[in-house]
Structure formats: structure tokens, C-alpha cells
Amino acid sequence: MRDLKNADPTEISRINALMQVIEGRLIQNSNPAKALEHLQLAIKELNAIGKAIPDNVTVRSDLAHYNLQSSTIADSLDLVEDATRLRGTAATHLKWLLEKNPSLKPAKVKLAALEIMAAELNMQEGNDREGAKKLAAAEILLKGLPEDDTAPDGASIQIAAAKGLRAVIMRDLGRTTEAAKTLDKAVSITERIVKANPKSSEPIYRLAVFKWKRAGLAGDNGNTDTELKLGSEAADLMQRLLNQGAGKRDTKIRRSLAYLYGDLGHTAADKGQKKQSAQYFNSASKMWQSLIQKIGRKSEFIEGLKWSQQRYKEASN
Fold this sequence. Notes:
This protein is 81% helix and 0% strand. By secondary structure, it is mainly α. The chain folds into 3 domains: 1-101, no CATH class; 103-245, Tetratricopeptide repeat domain (Serine Threonine Protein Phosphatase 5, Tetratricopeptide repeat, Alpha Horseshoe), CATH 1.25.40.10; 248-317, Methane Monooxygenase Hydroxylase, Chain G, domain 1 (Up-down Bundle). The chain starts with 8 loop residues before the first helix and ends with a helix.
């Protein structure tokens, strides 16, 4: 083992950071809170190096990576403010890297992912203008990057995510034909990624959302056969996520499924497919019941359960 007594302080900090990262990775699944502590200690060591040699690209890259990794763990622990802060710090380092090397693909992809995440949050909160700005920033970062990789966190999945958000904006502007074509492209890209990574939850979730949105566009256009087909495929993907363990998204997916099954049941009933509609309404009821068991008797869940049970009775007669 090397004698570190006379080693450069920067080298010691680098070794200490690496040790903290290794410790964190070993326990990330079993003890995420402790793993987060180790990563924060690693970041502290790397920050010290960054102050000593601020133009070191490797250190900046590591800081971006470990802040992103920390934000993911913080998210899993429902530490929303910490996760947001860590993503912001990661973005700062990524922007610095791109200033030094504008063609650095990994930095572009990671920064685009952060912009897309922020855009999604803005749009969910009703701040479409700010969301559109962040989406545009992501699209600029992704422009010209190939769409042929199948990595669950590569450029292609971010390109698909950006297309999914762009389709929502197009739909809201009444440009439904363009929105449908854009979603079809997002679906095509993501299907390839899911095929290559059948156990990776993020691409599966993305694909389910894209198909649900595309089903909605088909229904709005009067194409109920396509609506039922794509909606059913979206539901199957969501069930697949629940079966393999949806983690933090479990509640969100159950709620989405409850509404999706209700939509499918309603469409099937309108088409005179009573047996199929009854099955969908029954599935919706089961989802609402699972939410009540997991979360409690929230008014939304109670009303959803009553509605789906009533529709099930009507379809069964």
C-alpha cells in the first residue's frame, strides 16, 4: 500500500472521495440514506479539489455525476428539496463542462435530462411557458445526436422524452396531427430501448405514458379501435411495472391505471363491447381499492371506486 504521509493533499482528497463512493455503492440498495451520506462526503472531498484546481475537467465531471447520483437517491427518500438542490449543482458543473467542450455528448445528454425533468415539473404545475423554455433548451442540447442507441439513460431515451413533451404542447395548440406523428416517433424509439432493456423501469414507464397519450389523441380523432389498442398496451406496461416493483412510482402508476382502465371501459361501452367494458371497469375498481388500502380513504379514491363499480354493474347487466 502506498505511503500517503507525504502525498499531495489533492491526491489524498481524490482517494478519500473514491473510498466514499465505493462505500456508498455497496449499500445503496440496502441503506440508501447512509449511501447518500457517503456520496455527500465524496462530493465534499471533490469540492476541495475543485477549489484547488478549478479547471480540472475530470473533477468537474465527477462532481456532476455524483451530484446526479445523489439526487436520485434523495428522490427515492422523498428528500425533494435536497434532490432539487443536487440537480441544480449537477447542472452547473455540466454547463461548465460544455463551455469547455461544447461537443461533449455525455454532458449534453445529462443536462438535457435535467432540463426535461424540470420542464415536466413545470408543465405538471401548469407553468407551460417555463416548461416550454426548458424543453427548448433540452432540444437544442439533443439536436444532431443519434437516435439509435438502446441505453436506458442514453441520448435516445431523452430524445423520446423531449418528443413526448413537444407532442403535448402541439396537442394543446390544436396541432393534433403533428402531435400524433411526434408521439409515434417517441413510441418507436422507446420500444426499441425497452426491447433491449426489458427490466429497466424508466423506458417502460416512458413507453406506457407515450402510448396512453397517443391513445387519447386517437380517441379525440374518433379512432376508437386504435384508442383501445394503444390504451390497453399502455395498461399492460403499467401492470408490468407494478409486477416487477414500481418503487416510488407505485402510487402514481396505480392512480394512472385506475383512470386509464376507466377511460378504456367508457370507450368500450360506447362501442357496445359490454363484456370488455365490464372487465376494464372491474380493473379500475381494483386499482382504486388498492389505493385506498395503501394510502387511505381519500375522496378522489372513494369517488373513483364508486363510479367504476357503478359502471361495472351497468356493463354487466
